[in-house]
């Protein structure tokens, strides 16, 4: 599509007069022609960081070709660019800071509460605060656990709910045997609890006569 055709179309649109454009998708860039309905719908599409999107373009090699990508950033929202928006300008500014692509640019909780958007609602001096969690708390994530360690951890968790399994512990135990024994204990306890109730139900159905 030539610049002269675009200028003629813009001039006709400014004068509210009809105009006709003949578009060849194989000879002209498709980004210059977008249906009005799709354009209006795209204005109300809510996008966020990390959202996947897919676009379709017609090329010379094939009829339709899809291109996929990821949203890596969002533009600033303000009442000047988004005139008539129902959102408060301070709220938009705070959201822009919270949704920053780089985590280093995002405010901490105390910094967010000190934002002018929360003026009169939040008091930083009386808000609870604590020190960051030490890295030693996440040491288990870097620890290399072997199969024997996993079995030992499972056994310790079983002992929390079934302490009677402690005498059966051996150095190299089979976890399947332990689980079978726990299942047996559970079934026995279940039968002990449900047996009186089932007997009472049978007496109601078939009462015993002296």
Automatic annotation (TrEMBL):
Its main location: nucleus. Keywords: Auxin signaling pathway, DNA-binding, Nucleus, Transcription, Transcription regulation. GO terms for molecular function: DNA binding. One of its GO terms (cellular component) is nucleus. Pfam families: ARF_AD. InterPro entries: ARF_dom, ARF_plant, Kinase-like_dom_sf. It comes from the Eukaryota. It is found in: Nucleus. One of its GO terms (biological process) is auxin-activated signaling pathway. The keyword Transmembrane does not apply. Residues 32-92 form the Auxin response factor domain. Belongs to the ARF family. This is Auxin response factor domain-containing protein. It comes from Eruca vesicaria subsp. sativa.
């Amino acid at each position: 599509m030539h610049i002269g055709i675009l200028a003629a179309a813009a001039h006709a649109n400014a004068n509210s007069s009809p105009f006709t454009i003949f578009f060849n998708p194989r000879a002209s860039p498709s980004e210059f022609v977008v249906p009005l309905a799709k354009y209006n719908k795209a204005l109300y599409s809510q996008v966020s960081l990390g959202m996947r999107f897919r676009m379709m373009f017609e090329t010379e090699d094939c009829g339709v070709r899809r291109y996929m990508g990821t949203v890596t950033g969002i533009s600033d929202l303000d009442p000047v660019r988004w005139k008539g928006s129902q959102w408060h300008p301070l709220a938009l500014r705070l959201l822009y800071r919270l949704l920053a692509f780089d985590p280093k640019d995002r405010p901490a909780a105390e910094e967010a509460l000190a934002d002018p958007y929360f003026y009169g609602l939040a008091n930083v001096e009386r808000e609870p605060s604590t020190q960051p969690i030490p890295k030693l708390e996440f040491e288990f994530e870097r620890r290399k656990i072997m199969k024997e360690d996993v079995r030992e951890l499972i056994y310790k968790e079983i002992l929390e709910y079934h302490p009677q399994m402690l005498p059966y512990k051996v150095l190299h135990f089979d976890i399947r045997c332990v689980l079978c024994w726990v299942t047996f204990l559970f079934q026995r306890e279940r039968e002990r609890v449900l047996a009186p109730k089932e007997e009472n139900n049978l007496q109601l159905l078939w009462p015993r006569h002296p």
